[in-house]
Amino acid sequence: MTAKMNSVCYHAPGQMSIIQTDIPKIDDNQVLVKVTCCGICGSDVGICSGGFGVKFPLIPGHEIIGIVSQVGALVKDFVVGDRCAVDNIINCEACFFCRRNQPIQCTNIKIIGVHLPGAFTEYIAVSAKMVYKIGGISDEEAIFIEPISCAIHGVDRLGSLVPGMNALVIGAGVHGIVLSQLLKLNGASCVTLAANRGKKMDIARQVNAADVYVEFDRADPTSQWTSLKEENPLGFEVVIDATGSAKVVNDALDFVRSGGTLLLYGLYSDDAMVQWSPTKIFANEIKVIGSFGQKHCFSRALEYLQRNKINVKGLVTDVFPINDFNNAMDKVGTKDCCKIVIKPSL
């Protein structure tokens, strides 16, 4: 009889149950990873609601940490017992964009937990070339390798950063906190982190994410936005929106210094719209760019964590077992949590 495992399965948008599935078989170039924890990403809300081109039924989960449980016959670099992180992006390496070194735009891209079975389960079979050994950090720190990789790609998209620049990051979720730290590490003399008052901003302060903190009143942030503008009349050389709010993005352009850059980093609804003056962008030579996902950034993210350059201690605020997945998803996006992790062994 084939061995079974517990898995979160979405049968249709918003329709989830815990099911028994077969522990996957591996081929000669794969490893079987026993999942020790898998982080819930903000994108999982959209994925489980039918976004991102998903096809049901689906086992979601793409922030994957585990232990190598079995290795394929041709795998040379891993042995049973290795702790590891798993990259979640698979490119075709043959399409127009892949051949132009734009893997994020791959027309045949496959993402674990989106187009392929993910890791809100007990075991997952993956190609060995997607696996990275981890050491010197805990699982609850390693869970941030994938989010940090996405943030690194975002900073890469900014191009050559000028030492001594000032930057504004809007939003104090995991990505806002990590982006703030990356900007400090890559030349910013002053990083301002602006977000709603609450637990996430408390955590941002605890990890020393930024240099200046602007806490918005949730009911009426008008006075804080006004003060921020008055205290920075020329604006910021780099402004990053990590909120996913079209209104915030619409207003963010007013905080970009002439010759500066606005980076759109949040997850926005498909029908979200902004209204900017093209004259302002043209005359002030403002760059507006986007950043989505990552590719080939895992090794750098791991280095940042292992060398204690990026502090993620305390960002995991809640841990749930697989059987309590519904409650975990209900808590995502609330103001009293930061990162939520699923641990199958609980």
What does this protein structure show overall?
Belongs to the zinc-containing alcohol dehydrogenase family. It comes from Crucibulum laeve. Residues 11-342 form the Enoyl reductase (ER) domain. Its cofactor is Zn(2+). The protein is α/β, with parallel strands linked by helices. It folds into 2 domains: 4-144 and 315-342, Alpha-Beta Complex (Quinone Oxidoreductase, Chain A, domain 1); 151-290, Rossmann fold. 24% of the residues lie in helices and 29% in strands. It has helices at 42-48, 139-142, 145-157, 174-185, 199-206, 222-231, 246-252, 278-283, 298-306, 325-331; strands at residues 4-12, 15-22, 30-40, 63-71, 83-86, 89-90, 110-111, 123-127, 131-133, 165-170, 188-196, 212-216, 236-241, 256-264, 287-290, 316-320, 339-342. The strands form 4 sheets. Strands 3, 4, 5, 8, 9, 16 and 17 form a 7-stranded mixed beta sheet that branches. Strands 12-11-10-13-14-15 form a 6-stranded parallel beta sheet, with helices on both faces. A hairpin with a 2-residue loop joins strand 1 (4-12) and strand 2. Helix 3 (145-157) crosses helix 4 (174-185) and helix 3 packs across helix 9 (298-306). The relative contact order is 0.15. The model has no long low-confidence stretch (mean pLDDT 96).
